[in-house]
Design a protein that fits this description.
The protein is an alpha+beta fold. The chain has five helices and eight strands; from the N terminus they run βααβββαααββββ. The protein has a single domain, classed as 4'-phosphopantetheinyl transferase domain (Ribosomal Protein L22, Chain A, Alpha-Beta Complex), CATH 3.90.470.
Length: 226
């Protein structure tokens, strides 16, 4: 399903429930100590999806471990992103030669709690939401905004290895299934030692509402947009 909002050069694998044949590799198993059964199932299925997606790129199975701030560690010369929510797990990967970074997020299609919404939405975003609710009231724009912010962070962090707060991205959701995220921090330098060009000041993404889910995806090309 999420492939509908991603370019073909990004490999996708997804599941709509935990898979009984999802097996963790030994190094991954160590990361699940203390997990309840539900959390372990999500973790295992997401990594099973990751190996399927990597396999479609010709990359053999490897453990997907955690790095700084819990970000997944992908095989050399690849980039990727994981997501899971009730009724959905997905992994997307691409060759680094084609894509600098990718971020995806999935959320259940339901209103966002008011206290959470107030903590993540800028005044400009709340104003746009009110207008969007009039135009397309069937969409839970508040939850979609949250999902887009999550996708922004998952795209940002591999490029910079720095935190980005909810208030540091101004997201404009559009009814046509697209969105843009203006990065409000002035520090757009890439992670030290990578030799990569500056991080784009605006990310472009797409969203999808289908099957009781809200999905968002951002792909940063191998060279930043002018």
């Amino acid at each position: 399903m999420i492939e509908k909002i991603l370019p073909s050069r990004v490999a996708v694998a997804e599941a709509f429930s935990d898979l009984p044949d999802a097996v963790l590799l030994p190094a991954e198993e160590a990361l699940t100590r203390g997990f309840v059964a539900k959390r372990r199932g999500e973790f295992a299925t997401a990594r099973h999806c990751a190996r399927l997606a990597l396999g479609s790129l010709g990359i053999p199975p490897v453990p997907i471990l955690k790095g700084a701030r819990g970000a997944p560690i992908w095989p050399e010369n690849t980039v990727g992103s994981l997501t899971h929510c009730t009724g959905y797990r997905a992994a997307v990967v691409a060759h680094r030669a084609d894509v600098r970074s990718v971020g995806i997020d999935a959320e259940c299609d339901a209103p966002l709690p008011a206290d959470v919404h107030g903590s993540i939405a800028l005044a400009t975003e709340q104003r746009r939401e009110r207008e969007l609710c009039l135009e397309r009231p069937e969409i839970n724009w508040d939850r979609l905004l949250f999902s887009a912010k999550e996708a922004v962070y998952k795209t940002w962090f591999p490029l910079t290895h720095r935190w980005l707060g909810f208030e540091e991205a101004d997201i404009e959701l559009c009814p046509d299934g697209s969105f843009t995220a203006e990065i409000l921090t002035s520090d757009l330098e890439p992670a030290a030692g990578t030799g990569a060009p500056a991080v784009p000041g605006v990310f472009s993404g797409r969203w999808l509402s289908e099957g009781g889910l809200l999905l968002t995806a951002i792909v940063v090309e191998d060279t930043p947009a002018p």
